[in-house]
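Re: the request from the purification team.
They wanted to know what the chain is likely to look like in 3D before they choose a buffer screen. I agreed to run a prediction and write the result into the notebook, where they can find it.
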Amino acid sequence: MALQPIQSIHNGAHTVQPIPVVLNGRTLEPNRRMPLNLDWVDQVRVNTSAVERRAATHVARRTVKKDTQVAWLLRAIACMDLTTLSGDDSVERVKRLCAKARNPLQRHLVEGLGIEELHLTVGAVCVYHAFVETAVKALEGSDIPVAAVSAGFPHGLSPLTARMEEIHRSVEAGAQEIDIVITRAHVFGGEWQALYDEVAAFKEACGPHAHMKAILGTGDLMTLRNVARASWVAMMAGADFIKTSTGKESVNATLPVSLVMVRCIREYAERTGMAVGFKPAGGIRTAKQSLDWLALMKDELGRPWLEPSLFRFGASGMLGDIERQLEHHLTGHYSATYRHPIA
């Protein structure tokens, strides 16, 4: 089954033709905090075998070729959070990353594909708090938002007041998106009110303008039911996005986990009329994997979730492989990996 080409492409902070957020004929509103409904949490059930079978067949039945593949790979770039979260990060590395965010494809690829008028950029640049001001300055005039990992990233074990203060500082420094980390122990102990209160406090700390992505740390949560219940609580607490992983866990984004989370998003939208975004992060390194996740979003949630306003990849290493695939499309040959540095 071939995927259909995508017509609109991300241009700065918006699309040329905005896509209404509609699910099953119902126009959705942005998510906002609602009271915690413990009945919804208790009712969550996940058939693990069925989820794994669905994920396996999803990968096996998709083929994307030629110009259609190019369109979907460009969409993957538009939905990418270009990220550097290493212990040896530096100001110069962040500046190089921002330059790549402004021009994610080399000039000869842009000209060869004839996409100059798209002004293609990535969805955001994601850095530690220490580099927010550097990234904001480097991206000035581009409309590319800066995302900061916060709230005790990656473990989320520092005191709550310290985590909230870190969010405040990142927003004051110019971050427009905040990726927070939940306390996984709340999930293990079934402490749903505590988890709800924590995520709600983080959302409040983000203020009225910064979007918040709630990182669940799915590789640590042990069961798909835990993943689903944590997803529901984070959404009810007001998260704009739910995100799989920090990228630091031993197991990061997988298709079965992603399938569970996007179906929670779908059911939540059907019950509340509110839309929540999704971000898989960690372990997504190839162009082929980007197509798998984009197809999952299209199948499960529909066209609006192919926009950077509702879908992001946390997968910087994937950009180099996408460039190699696009070069192969133009020339019939694969270029060496070192020709496509990220930062």
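For the purification team: The CA atoms of residues 11 and 120 lie 6 Å apart.
Please add any questions underneath this entry.
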